[in-house]
Design a protein that fits this description.
The protein is an alpha/beta fold. The chain contains 12 helices and 23 strands. The chain has helices spanning 60-68, 86-89, 92-98, 108-118, 187-199, 203-212, 232-244, 261-275, 290-298, 316-328, 347-355, 374-394; strands at residues 7-10, 13-15, 18-20, 25-26, 30-31, 36-38, 41-44, 49-52, 78-80, 103-106, 125-127, 133-135, 140-145, 155-159, 164-168, 220-223, 250-255, 279-284, 302-306, 309-310, 313-314, 334-341, 361-369. The chain has a 7-stranded mixed beta sheet with strand order 1-2-7-8-9-10-11. The N and C termini lie far apart (58 Å). Bound molecules: flavin mononucleotide and fe (ii) ion (FE2) (2 copies).
Length: 395
Amino acid sequence: MVERNVVKLSENVYWVGSRDWNRRLFDALIPLPRGTSYNAYLVIGEKENALIDTVNPGFEKELEEKIHAVIRPETIDYVIMNHAEPDHAGAIPHIMKLATKAKLIATNRGAKMAQTFYAVPKDRIKVVGDNETLSLGGKTLRFIEAPMLHWPETMFTYLQEDKILFPCDFFGAHLAGWLYDDEVEDLLVHAQRYWGEIMMPFRAMAQKALEKIQGLDIKMIAPSHGPIHRNPEHILDAYRRWANGETRQKATIAYVSMWNSTEKMVKQIAETLAAEDVEIALHNLAITDTGDLAKDLVDSKALVLGAPTVLGVAHPLAVYAAYLVKALRPPIKYVVLLSSYGWGGGAIKHVQEVLGQFKVEVVGAVDVNGPPTEENTRKIVEMGKVLAKKIKEEA
Ligand SMILES: Cc1cc2nc3c(=O)[nH]c(=O)nc-3n(C[C@H](O)[C@H](O)[C@H](O)COP(=O)(O)O)c2cc1C
Ligand SMILES: [Fe+2]
Ligand SMILES: [Fe+2]
């Protein structure tokens, strides 16, 4: 048996997770500059043992060895599945095979998913309701339903005696290194990036979950990705702000440009907004990191989209960005559209169609034939001033 690093978080509570240093993409969409971790936890009671969540496929053996450093895997009585996504539930078949007497604990929806995704037999699943408790002997687990964070079956597990909340994906960050929140200088940046992609589309559900756990005495939050929060107030504060849709005096500018015409327009509005003391985050969609873009959308009040016409419609990268904005549902209030075309145009109409039902005020659109003229630029400056005023009035 290889020697494995496990960490004691509290008496008889251990981190037995895996660090995926080399992973560079999540959901085949979001870059992971610093990898990620799949955190699993062991809770050892006087009478019974529980494993909270598992790890990504490929890390089964590592998880087994880590559990072994604390107890024999056969002695696991319960596998708690807070979330059915493979990065946390992928090793369930392996563990259920080792721990022959173990029962899987999940919400009602989770139970169905465990059967479909992981072929767990129905008679090995124990469905738990909201606020139900399970005593392991001196360690009491309370299950808190927290649906749609970010799948329908999600729940949190709270260890009452130690006051530790295991919320799975909620409060997570994609970071392979570090164990505790206070060891990472820019943790909130990573947490915001993670929120932007995973949790932002479910702000209403996040608010409900935050209200639900408000009365809990939480000493530690142990999520399934990234560092464990032993100073939980920081991440709780940030989550309250993000879930409420609190924004800064900030505009995200996302654009693509083939021959620099749209780029000139975009850079002009960036100058005007900056001169008006609006914080700006500029993303060239041809080279930007989608995670960074998602992060900036979390607390921006406005979006400027620069989209030239290609083949009668908007450039594919601008379509992608408009679609992403609509899907992630950021608390953006205002939109400005900037475009350049060669002959017939069509990009502005197209991005408006893509944005569809996304509720925003379109402050204005400038569609220029070829490179922007002085007259066009004056119009953009004017529009930038109007946008800045709206952004600042709101704050
Ligand atoms: C591959 C390609 C396809 C284009 N298709 C159209 C088109 O269908 N309709 C149009 O009005 N202009 C079209 N154009 C012209 C561009 O919209 C025009 O050059 C514009 O100024 C480009 O803005 P940019 O410099 O920001 O890339 C096309 C240009 C390219 C390179
Ligand atoms: Fe997930
Ligand atoms: Fe996850």
